């Protein structure tokens, strides 16, 4: 059974940091691109970052220099999103996505507010 489980969201003040995790099971993890998306209220889901099987990364313009995506293919089958210098406009539900199976996690809420 394919499963993606996100964790690490929460409430943080502007300028703070969070680290999101996405643990994958039931699928071939290492050969496929993984993405983080986010969706804010009344907005479309957008790509935040992606990491290819070779470790190459790409980021959305609004998060470049603040967010870092990484992955562990060896044992943990996990992808992370380190988010620094968070801003109120980063508030959204964050989802991980596996391009091989087009699977989605359940999402984790990130709220940036003072």
Task: Write structural notes for this entry.
The chain is built from no helices and 11 strands. It is mainly beta and 114 residues long. The strands form 2 sheets. Strands 2, 4, 5, 6, 9, 10 and 11 form a 7-stranded mixed β-sheet that branches. A 4-stranded antiparallel β-sheet has the order 1-3-8-7, with no helix packed on it. The model has no long low-confidence stretch (mean pLDDT 94).
- The total beta strand count reads 11
State the helical fraction: under 10%
**Overall pLDDT, averaged?**
94
- Note the main sheet: 7 strands, mixed
Decide which structural class fits the backbone: mainly beta
Radius of gyration: 13 Å
What's a quick, concise take on this entry?
The chain has strands spanning 3-7, 10-12, 18-25, 34-39, 46-51, 57-59, 67-72, 78-83, 92-98, 103-104, 108-112.
How would the blueprint of this fold be written?
Layout: E1 3-7, E2 10-12, E3 18-25, E4 34-39, E5 46-51, E6 57-59, E7 67-72, E8 78-83, E9 92-98, E10 103-104, E11 108-112
Parallel strand pairs: 2-11
Antiparallel strand pairs: 1-3, 3-8, 4-5, 4-9, 5-6, 7-8, 9-10, 9-11
Please give a handful of descriptors for the protein shown.
114 residues, seven-stranded mixed beta sheet, 0% helix, globular
């Amino acid at each position: 059974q394919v499963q993606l489980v996100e964790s690490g969201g929460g409430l943080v003040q502007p300028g703070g940091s969070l680290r999101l995790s996405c643990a994958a099971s039931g699928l071939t993890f290492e050969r496929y691109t993984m993405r983080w998306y986010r969706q804010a209220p009344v907005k479309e889901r957008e790509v935040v970052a992606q990491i290819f099987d070779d470790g190459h990364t790409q980021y959305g313009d609004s998060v470049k220099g603040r967010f870092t995506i990484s992955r562990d293919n060896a044992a943990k089958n996990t992808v992370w999103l380190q988010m620094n210098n968070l801003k109120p406009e980063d508030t959204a539900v964050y989802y991980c996505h596996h391009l091989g199976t087009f699977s989605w996690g359940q999402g984790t809420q990130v709220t940036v507010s003072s």
